[in-house]
């Protein structure tokens, strides 16, 4: 298996299992490689838009749909708490895990809490809406803003 | 990319923050996006949808127009404002 793919799978497996981001050392141990080699793989995955890294070049900010940092979009599945990068990714986590989950977020204007049960077939009927300010052609101009 | 309880509240938020109101997406459509983008993300053969595939996904979910075109040049620079993710 290609080293970058192996690295990507190790990252995603860590998020799926723990809900949190792995350190470069944890990924290195998982793929039986050196830290410098994994750091280089992180950079390549960033260039391919698989990951978004913090300014230190190695802390994972995003491995969509997972967020490496706490956000207002929290997802609980099988007792594990995950953070999503945005409203879209909040539903993306149960889709990726293929597991029932509860999405906890809020209405950005009224701050009313959203507690949404999601099964493997999706959420039930809900009148809540999703809004994105940035057009699709510009999402990756600044993915953190998007 | 945010949740709103109603269209009225989304309009209020846009008005107060100075952001344009974009097409609103229903929860069933959002689930379609989440599923099509991420359902294979933990698999070895997963990859991000390419522009043509993105257009197909959006169209299948009824999301059409320049806003959803990943290669559109109809919009200017990135909207300015607070970080919203």
Topology:
The complex is a heterodimer of chains A (146) and B (85).
Chain A: H1 3-18, H2 24-31, H3 35-47, E1 52-53, E2 60-63, E3 66-67, E4 74-77, E5 80-83, H4 87-97, E6 101-106, E7 113-119, E8 122-123, E9 129-131
Antiparallel strand pairs in A: 1-2, 2-3, 4-5, 4-6, 6-7, 7-8
Chain B: E1 2-4, H1 7-17, E2 25-26, H2 27-38, H3 51-60
Could you please describe the fold and organization of this structure?
The complex is a heterodimer of chains A (146) and B (85). Chain A has 146 residues and is of the alpha+beta class. Chain A has helices at residues 3-18, 24-31, 35-47, 87-97; strands spanning 52-53, 60-63, 66-67, 74-77, 80-83, 101-106, 113-119, 122-123, 129-131. The radius of gyration of chain A is 16 Å and the shape is globular. With 85 residues, chain B is mainly alpha-helical. Chain B has three helices and two strands. Chain B has helices spanning 7-17, 27-38, 51-60; strands spanning 2-4, 25-26. Chain B is globular, with a radius of gyration of 15 Å. Residues 80-85 of chain B have low confidence and may be disordered. Chains A and B meet through helix 1, helix 4, strand 7, strand 8 and strand 9 of A and strand 1, helix 1, strand 2 and helix 2 of B. Strand 9 (129-131) of chain A pairs antiparallel with strand 2 of chain B.
């Amino acid at each position: 298996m290609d080293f970058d793919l192996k690295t990507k799978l190790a990252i995603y497996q860590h998020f799926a299992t723990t809900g949190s981001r792995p350190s470069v050392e944890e990924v290195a141990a998982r793929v039986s490689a050196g830290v410098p080699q994994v750091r280089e793989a992180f950079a390549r995955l960033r260039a391919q838009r698989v990951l978004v890294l913090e300014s230190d070049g190695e802390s994972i900010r995003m491995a969509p749909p997972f967020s490496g940092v706490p956000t207002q979009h929290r997802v609980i599945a099988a007792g594990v708490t995950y953070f999503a990068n945005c409203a879209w990714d909040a539903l993306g986590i149960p889709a990726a895990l293929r597991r029932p989950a509860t999405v906890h977020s809020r209405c950005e204007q009224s701050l009313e809490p959203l507690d949404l049960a999601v099964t493997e077939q999706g959420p039930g009927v809900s009148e809540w809406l999703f809004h994105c300010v940035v057009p699709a052609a510009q999402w990756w101009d600044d993915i953190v803003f998007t | 990319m945010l949740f709103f309880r109603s269209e009225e509240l989304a309009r209020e938020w846009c008005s107060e923050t100075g952001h344009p109101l974009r097409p609103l997406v229903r929860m069933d459509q959002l689930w379609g996006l989440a599923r099509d983008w991420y359902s294979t993300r933990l698999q070895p053969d997963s990859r991000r949808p390419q522009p043509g595939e993105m257009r197909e996904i959006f169209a299948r979910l009824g999301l059409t127009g320049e806003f959803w075109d990943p290669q559109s040049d109809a919009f200017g620079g990135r909207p300015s404002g607070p970080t919203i993710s």
